[in-house]
Amino acid sequence: MSGSNEPSDNDVDLYYLKVKEEAESSGYILNNDIEFTKGLLKSILINNARYGYGACPCRLALGERNDDLDIICPCDYRDPDLNEYGACYCALYISNEILTGKKKVQSIPERRPSFEDREKIKEEKEVQITGLSKPVWRCKVCGYLCARDKPPETCPICKVSSDRFEKFI
Ligand code: SF4
User: Fold this and answer.
1) CA torsion sign, 97 to 98 to 100 to 103?
2) Which of 16, 104, 107, 162 could join 151 via S-S bond, C-beta 3.0 to 4.6 A?
3) How far apart are CA 105 and CA 116, in angstroms?
């Protein structure tokens, strides 16, 4: 990365290869319009340099990691949007139907709740009471589940950090 927030073409190319490999190894498909895809990835790199985390390139980040955990790419909304529309909100990830032309990319409504609603959802999750001796944590990126006092520092499956886990039960 150069001195400014602007990543070099080489930074973007390397990041593209990394994200593509991760996607393919976990059953996801990156948009096959390579220039479009690299443009999105470049914006994620810029966000990473600006905020310290790779916020979604199509949304306005608040600049506080804790408030934007749900939109760190890949965001919490990727899978439901892929299921319903065949693409994530930015169309960085697409379904096989879109890839093979059986379905067209359409405009995708924003699924992310408002800031106030997100705060309410967090509070509701905090007060959930269970009879288990340990809470169950779920990685919001890959779905990995584990029962322990705290989430692991790094997801053993997809390698994201502990703050991408949510208390599942
Ligand atoms: S909408 Fe797509 S590009 Fe944006 S954060 Fe989610 S997965 Fe990443």
Assistant:
1) positive
2) 162
3) 30
Residue of 77, 79, 142 with the most ligand 1 atoms within 8 Å of its CB, for mutation:
77
Q: 12 in ligand 1 pocket by Cβ < 6 Å? A: no
Please choose, from the candidates 159, 112, 117, the residue with its C-alpha nearest in 3D space to the C-alpha of residue 139.
Answer: 159
* Residue 14 in contact with ligand 1 by CB distance below 6 A: no
Report helix, strand or coil for 116.
helix
Q: How many CA atoms lie within 13 A of 92 on its CB side?
A: 22
Per-residue model confidence as pLDDT tens digits over 40-78: 999 999 999 999 999 999 999 999 999 999 999 999 999
The single-letter code of the amino acid at 77 is Y
pLDDT value of residue 129: 57
8 A C-beta contact, residue 56 and residue 73: yes
Q: What spacing in Å lies between the alpha carbon of 144 and ligand 1's midpoint? A: 19
Structure tokens at 136: 């169950």
Q: Please state, in angstroms and rounded to a whole number, the distance separating the CA atoms of residues 51 and 74.
A: 16
pLDDT tens for each residue of 87-106:
999 999 999 999 999 999 88
Type of residue at 54 = G
Helices (H), the chain: 9-25, 34-51, 65-68, 78-85, 96-99, 115-126
